[in-house]
């Protein structure tokens, strides 16, 4: 039975009343999908609860649900009702059993047949993998497992329900990648071969849907590397992240790296904290190395790979339709990942100016993961010491950006009778450079004197 360690967040009392009503009307309610799988894996608080109700026509089902909460028919095309119990912040997907038949390449190109009298076992046949094709009659009924999902979970096997699973919905291939990595599964031979055969179909899937599954892989898998290896081995990587594919076999001679760029990248991801922007940066931090590699007597150099990588990261994340904020943060981390950890106080202030207080610790975490992933047993004590210095500098409440200055643009305009224009920005950037060198200059009086000096010199130049 569903349980919660943090109170009745799932509104179980309401669900049980709903189940009683459904039963009295001749229907049956089943919990389906990921929550059934998660409890078999001893994940006691699944993120989502989905239900199928059999034996009740769609029009009658809506009336029953409205007795217990609000409904939203956003998924009506697929026979899905969003149900939110009264006085609840939690919503459920509730649907009728259905059959689906693919009639095109897009994920909405399906011929859907709703049938309240369809056995739940037949509905489960349209699911992606056996581990997700299980149901449990709510609240205390038996497990319905027509495809052996429980046994596959026990043996840690990822197996597609149908031979046409990836043709019906190509996104299932990348879903399989993240399931395999998150739950430490081995891919069934036939399922692997089907992924390999149909990898090209991933091109028909929208970038946003692919990014959503990549996020799950990066944030929820302890070792996302397993997923990226599966993508490489099945050919999916060629279509999703061809730039990463080009790092395979790019050796890094010189005694600092144990692995090629691809293997080093995967190790960097695994050693990064499971925060999306950090792991995306780990994924892309050396993406510019194949184009910048030069062989020298003592090994190889990759000068400029960080700056090239920053530009490439921006383009890749735009292609996958990430938010502008995520793109900005990840590109900054990639572009600055070669920072000097030997910097003194002045250098740390300049780094904070370029990266920002909010992002600097993500940058340090990336550097630590990058160093560990060199695979040569490098000492990371210096990185930890650098982090401490950064914390100390931030604690001093220094000015790291223009908005931290003791003088703002309006005050500049009023004091010197300046017109609105780019000159204000030039003065403020000059003042910030002076304050980054010497924080003691960040007082209104001193900044006005510096401004006067700057404007006088500018006037003489004219």
Note the topology.
Elements: H1 12-24, E1 28-32, H2 34-40, E2 50-54, H3 58-66, E3 69-75, E4 80-85, E5 92-95, E6 98-102, E7 110-114, H4 120-124, E8 135-137, E9 143-144, H5 149-155, E10 157-158, H6 165-168, H7 171-182, E11 186-187, H8 189-198, H9 207-220, H10 225-234, H11 236-240, H12 242-245, H13 261-270, H14 276-284, H15 289-292, E12 294-296, E13 299-301, H16 305-319, H17 324-336, H18 345-355, H19 357-372, H20 381-395, H21 409-416, H22 422-437, H23 444-461
Parallel strand pairs: 2-5, 10-11
Antiparallel strand pairs: 1-2, 1-8, 3-4, 4-5, 6-7, 8-9, 12-13
Helix pairs in contact: 7-9, 7-10, 13-14, 13-19, 14-17, 14-19, 16-17, 18-19, 19-20, 22-23
The mean pLDDT is 92
Report how far the terminal alpha carbons are from each other.
80 Å
Describe the global form: globular
At CATH's second level, what is the architecture of the largest domain?
Answer: 2-Layer Sandwich
What is the radius of gyration? 28 Å
Largest sheet: 7 strands, mixed
CATH class of the largest domain: Alpha Beta
Work out the number of β strands. 13
Q: Roughly what percent helix?
A: 40-55%
**Low-confidence residue ranges:** none
| Total individual domains | 4
The computed structural class is alpha+beta
How large is the count of helical segments?
23
């Amino acid at each position: 039975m569903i349980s919660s360690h943090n109170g009745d967040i799932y509104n179980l009392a309401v669900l049980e009343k709903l189940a009683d009503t459904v039963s009295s009307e001749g229907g049956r309610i089943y919990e389906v999908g990921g929550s059934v799988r998660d409890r078999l894996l001893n994940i006691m608080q699944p993120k989502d609860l989905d239900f199928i109700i059999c034996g009740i026509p769609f029009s009658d089902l809506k009336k029953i649900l409205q007795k217990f909460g609000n409904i939203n028919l956003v998924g009506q095309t697929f026979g899905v009702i969003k149900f939110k119990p009264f006085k609840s912040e939690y919503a459920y997907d509730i649907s009728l059993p259905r059959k689906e038949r693919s009639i095109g390449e897009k994920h909405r190109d399906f011929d859907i047949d709703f049938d309240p009298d369809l056995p739940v076992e037949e509905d489960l046949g349209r699911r992606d993998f056996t581990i997700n094709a299980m149901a449990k009659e709510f609240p205390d009924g038996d497990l319905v497992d027509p495809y052996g999902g429980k046994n596959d979970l026990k043996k840690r096997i990822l197996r597609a329900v149908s031979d046409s699973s990836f043709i019906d919905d190509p996104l299932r291939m990348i879903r399989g990648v993240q399931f395999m990595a998150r739950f430490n599964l081995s891919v069934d031979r036939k399922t692997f071969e089907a992924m390999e055969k149909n990898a090209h179909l991933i091109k028909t899937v929208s970038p946003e849907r692919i990014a959503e599954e990549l996020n799950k892989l990066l944030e929820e898998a302890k070792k996302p590397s397993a997923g990226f290896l599966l993508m490489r081995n099945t050919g999916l990587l060629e279509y999703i992240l061809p730039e990463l594919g080009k790092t395979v076999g790019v050796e890094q001679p010189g005694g600092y790296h144990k692995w090629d760029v691809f293997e080093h990248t995967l190790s960097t991801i695994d050693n990064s904290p499971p925060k999306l922007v950090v792991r995306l940066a780990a994924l892309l931090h050396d993406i510019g190395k194949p184009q910048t590699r030069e062989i020298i007597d003592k090994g190889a150099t990759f000068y400029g790979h960080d700056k090239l990588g920053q530009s490439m990261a921006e383009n890749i994340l735009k292609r996958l339709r990430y938010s502008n904020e995520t793109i900005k943060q990840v590109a900054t981390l990639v572009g600055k990942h070669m920072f000097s950890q030997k910097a003194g106080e002045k250098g740390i202030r300049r780094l904070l100016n370029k990266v920002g207080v909010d992002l600097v610790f993500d940058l340090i975490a990336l550097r630590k993961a990058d160093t560990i992933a060199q695979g040569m047993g490098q000492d990371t004590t210096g990185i930890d010491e650098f982090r401490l210095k950064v914390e100390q500098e931030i604690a001093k409440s220094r000015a790291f950006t223009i908005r931290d200055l003791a003088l703002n643009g309006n005050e500049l305009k009023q004091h010197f009778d300046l017109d609105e224009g780019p000159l204000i920005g030039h003065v403020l950037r000059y003042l910030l450079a002076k304050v980054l060198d010497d924080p003691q200059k960040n007082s209104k009086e001193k900044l006005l004197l510096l401004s006067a000096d700057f404007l006088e010199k500018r006037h003489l130049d004219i």
